[in-house]
Amino acid sequence: MKKQRLFIRTMILLVLGAAVVYTLYANFTKDDVKKVAVGKKAPNFVLTDMNGEQHRLSDYEGKGVLLNFWATWCKPCEREMPYMDKQYQENKEEDVQILAVNIGESDVVVNEFIKKHDLTFPILNDKKQEVQTVYGIGNLPITFLIAPDGNVVNVHEGEIINEQVVIDMIKEIKP
Amino acid sequence: MKEVKCECGHVNPHGTVLCESCGLTLIEEKAQGKLHDMRYEGSARRSQTYNKTIVDKIWNFFSSVKVGVWLIVITLIASALGTIFPQEMYIPTIMTAAEYYEDQYGWLGKLYYDLGFHNLYSSWWYLVLIASIGVSLVICSIDRVVPLYRALKKQRVTRHESFLKRQRLFTTSASENIDASFEKAKENLAMKRYKIREEDGNILAEKGRFSRWGPYVNHCGLIIFLLGGILRFVPGMYIDDMLWIREGETKVIPETNGEYYLENKEFTLEVYDKEKDNEAFSDAIENAGMVPKNFQSDVILYKKADDSLPGEEAKLEQIKEYNIRVNEPLKFDGYALYQTEYRLGELSTMTFTMINKKSKEEFGELTIELNDPQTKYDLGDGYSVEVMSYFPDFEFNESGEPTTKSRIPNNPAFVFKMFSPEKPEGEISFVAIQQNLEPFGDNEYQLRFSGIETNDVTGLTVRKDLTLWLFALGGFIFMIGVAQGSYWNHRRIWLRRNNDEIWVAAHTNKNWHGLKREISTILEGTGIDEPLDQLQEKENQDSEIKNRNHE
Where does the ResB-like domain start and stop, copy by copy (chain B) (predicted)? Predict the structure, then answer.
């Protein structure tokens, strides 16, 4: 009788406790629930760069991909661009690709930006804003590090403050 | 902990105050008053009897109604505090939250921010409070409903004299013909729809017992409601997103895995017209100015018909055309699109005419799509214009260079190069709204502003809620519980033979006045005296004593 009561009470408290713990856990991780999470496969896409060349993410499997989202009016984006461009030149021969996706501004604006900063690496334009919707892009800039197997290994939110950060990023995704 | 055997032979759980069966007082100290506390039928609330292990201690804490009430009071106060200043999600993003609160509300705002009240409703301690209320609700209910159920189930017809005497309504009356009185009373009780049980010639008449379960049914509803709240945190159960589409644009609907697309054909904002609408309102319309009548987006819903990737041209299959109005969402596949926002008159195109500054002669027009300008516009006959720079949302930055604040063409500005047969190398001019600057001041040609077109943008809320039915169910069960507990009363009348006397006692969980009136009709013509209200009598006596003392 007494044992049974203790058992029932313990079970009820455990069930209630589990519900409370789950709620708290879910509440604190809800901001981290990104559409593209670390450890998950990066959603595939096809975008055309400013030279008219198509880039399909899945074609880069076997290579590490640094995928950056940016806009011309975003000051931190403007500051970090040269670091990425420099590292693109350094790693051209390596199995690493750097892609920067503009969030769908007009070609005039993007081209002028490329000219102004003398950028040489592929700048893609998400004209229909589909890729940024799939990736759940909110604040800019944001950089996804994709391993050779196509899985996201890291997400860097905000500005890349110096070139060393890009070097470290590339180390993380190099095959 | 031993069970307690009453002199009537019934075995009661430890801690029982009044025997479940006959009502004899088992624990004298707990039943000292002149009247019995009948709230839980004198049953053994389990929490008050065992207090051994840590599990029991936690259980007992949450089982206390006092604790439950305090939890509710604290939650109410906390919820109220959260409304003093706006929550973080509603403040503008012009500066960090810490700065904003101090800037707007001074030291109080700073304190508010430091204490974490800017994000109160999702703070851990607020959630713990709500969760504790839920836990308290469950445990309080279990701890009371089980013993109550037992006590009501086990109750005997013949109750102990001491039990009857200490009911609020009680009296004894002598009667010559007890049998006849009882027969008449039974008849009357049956007429009042009482369930009558007899034992040794004594009567227990009872009705509306199910009213006692009202509060517990009600709590079940609340718990289901809370479960709905928890379920919203489960991924995929609840979606609340925003979709902005310009007129003429087709966009993928977020959170649909790229499956659905929406085209915005037209957005309309209708206002009341004092000429056309009901005359009675014409004054009101005049006073209030613009009064919106309808917000409407005419849309077409598409489904992706191939497995194209994001960024690729997708093959779209039209699903349906619909006019989304406020409270008339477009519903599909568990999703709903609600009309919630709009931007009127966003610039969409600008038209310029190239003229000779002196002769004013025109050499053709160019219309620039502001969301995607071309780089070159050929006007024919050797005249053309090149767009060198474009600033959709123009401003000068700190170093005095022209820049854009966003991609939305709120304030478009251009740097043009104009080519003409006379000036094949081109002339540069900077054109913004109501501005036309020439770097060298010696241009022969000019682009004269000749018109704009605007476009409306609709803002739709994308909502999916698979938890709503739980809230509805919880609310419905809650209301059943409320009705059950408030529109029915649990009434019991005991009639007991005691030698030549008839003892009458009665109890109800609420509405004593109703019970008294009912008893007076039941006992009419039976020769049995109506029971006296011992509580009222005592009050009367007390006030009499008080009055006497005053004199």
Answer: 65-422, 441-519
